[in-house]
Amino acid sequence: MELKIETEEKILQAAKTVFQQKGFDGCRMQDIADEAGINKALLHYYFRSKDRLFDAVFKDAFRKFFPKVQEIMASDITLEKKLESFIDKYMDLLIDNPMLPIFILNEVNRNPEKITEIINLQVINPNLLFGSIIKEIENGSIRKLDPRHLIISIIGMCIFAFAGKPIIKNFLLNNSEEEYLLFISQRKKEITELVLKSITNIK
Amino acid sequence: MELKIETEEKILQAAKTVFQQKGFDGCRMQDIADEAGINKALLHYYFRSKDRLFDAVFKDAFRKFFPKVQEIMASDITLEKKLESFIDKYMDLLIDNPMLPIFILNEVNRNPEKITEIINLQVINPNLLFGSIIKEIENGSIRKLDPRHLIISIIGMCIFAFAGKPIIKNFLLNNSEEEYLLFISQRKKEITELVLKSITNIK
DNA sequence: GTCTATATGGCGATAGAC
DNA sequence: GTCTATCGCCATATAGAC
Questions:
Q1: What's the rounded mean pLDDT across residues B139-146?
Q2: CA-to-CA distance for A128 and A69, rounded, in angstroms?
Q3: Which among A195, A185, A117, A197 has a CA at the least distance from the CA of A156?
Q4: Residues B161 and B70 in one domain
Q5: Domains in chain A, number
Q6: Nearest to A110 among B23, B152, B194 (CB)
Q7: A102 interface with B at CB cutoff 8 Å
Q8: CB of B21 within 7 Å of some strand D atom
Q9: Residue A40 distance to chain B (closest CA, Å)
Q10: Is residue B87 within 8 Å of B93, Cβ to Cβ?
């Protein structure tokens, strides 16, 4: 029935919202039922247990956490453009899903074994990007650096602006939501500038 | 009595360990009692409630999360040396407390009001560092940039190496703990290099 | 498929003996 | 100060009517 599918989708959507907000341990099945506007028993009818419902949500979120960068990386633009494009797309993703980083990082640290299962589903090929970077190093067009560290640095700079929101807001921005939004809107440019400056080969 | 103090300290130590590992919601009073090698009722005898015990642990952790940088920033060394010294000390702190970032970030996001209470205890003066940076910009010795973004970038780069450990290990380092430790040991130098390159004023 | 009612277990907290 | 035993509640999960 269409109604069946609609309900299942409604549950997944509600679960996504509540799990991301409160985390697995802090979330109650009742919270999800309320958010979905249905009864608690229906959750178990569709997903059998809290764990299974969580898995469905988590796998989706985890996939999203790693943006589709294959097209960017495979394309024929300069490394600078690739990095700029990556930061641009990743920040957009985080703006739309501000709780995603803290959600993923938290669950993955509380339950590190889980990630090992998921990795099999998730075919990520960092070598495409790494190859791009190494080539530029050999060209001499950027300075010698470890591509893995560069990527981790970029992701860290993007993520912390969101995972650290309450801290940033309080200590740096007078606890003003408005100033925080402004800060986030500047962030793309600031990160891109920082990264591009940092990889230049001028001594 | 000395015994009293010893027990209280034992509880705090155990609570710190377990809360950081599992988070407030995922942690059970029984877990802490086990870790401390005492009875569950004793926890309530000393700290009355889970909330109060958590507050004691959290305040301590939060204070630690912001390293004492006053001396560094107030000293008479170059900005480059200041940043290098900050990264050095902060990374050392995180190496000793690898779960600290995910713990703080998680709790602060789940309960953003809490930070507003704590901020009153915590006198942080970012202006000391910011002033240092702004002066160098006016000197023309570093490029024009927003000091706030620079700091958030540095902290993000440091933190993500730890908060993202399971992900980094799995996707970048063949799930090898040994390689991860190596990666962390290189990280100080990589971040410092990246930061110092990024702020230079050469076009 | 969706609901109400309930079983079952676990957790925070307290009472009370020693 | 430290323990055992227990209360009272709340969360997951199921039974069963509609």
A1: 95
A2: 9
A3: A195
A4: yes
A5: 2
A6: B23
A7: yes
A8: no
A9: 21
A10: no
Q: Is residue B203 part of a domain?
A: no
Helices (H), chain B: 2-26, 29-36, 40-47, 50-65, 70-74, 79-96, 100-110, 112-119, 127-139, 147-163, 165-172, 177-199
The answer to whether the beta carbons of residues B198 and A197 sit under 8 Å apart is yes
Main-chain dihedrals φ then ψ at residue B28, nearest 5 degrees: -110, 145
Q: Answer whether residue B13 is part of any domain.
A: yes
Give me the pLDDT at residue B70, please. 74
Nearest to B161 by CA among A159, A90, A63: A159
Q: State the CATH number of the domain containing residue B60.
A: 1.10.357.10
Q: Are residues B166 and B187 in the same domain?
A: yes
Give the CA-trace dihedral at B96, B97, B99, B103, to 10 degrees. Answer: -170
Is position A203 within any domain? no
Q: Is residue A107 predicted with pLDDT exceeding 90?
A: yes
* Strand segments (E) across chain A: none
What size, in residues, is chain A? 203
Q: Are residues A117 and A170 in the same domain?
A: yes
| Count of CA atoms in the C-beta half-sphere (13 A) of A4 | 4
Q: How far apart are CA A194 and CA A180, in angstroms?
A: 20
Q: Which domain holds residue B153?
A: 55-198
* In a shared domain, residues B123 and B151: yes
Domain shared by A59 and A44, yes or no: no
- Residue B43: both structure tokens together: 């926890």
A176 and A91 co-located in one domain: yes
Last residue within a domain, chosen from B25, B48, B71: B48
Other Cβ atoms within 10 Å of A77 Cβ, number: 12
pLDDT of residue A3: 60
The whole-angstrom separation of Cα B49 and Cα B64 is 23
Residue B181 (CA) to nucleotide C7 (C1'), in angstroms, measures 49
pLDDT digits (tens, 9 = 90+) for B38-58: 999 999 999 999 999 999 999
Please check whether residue B170 touches A, CB under 8 A: yes
Domain identity same for A147 and A80: yes
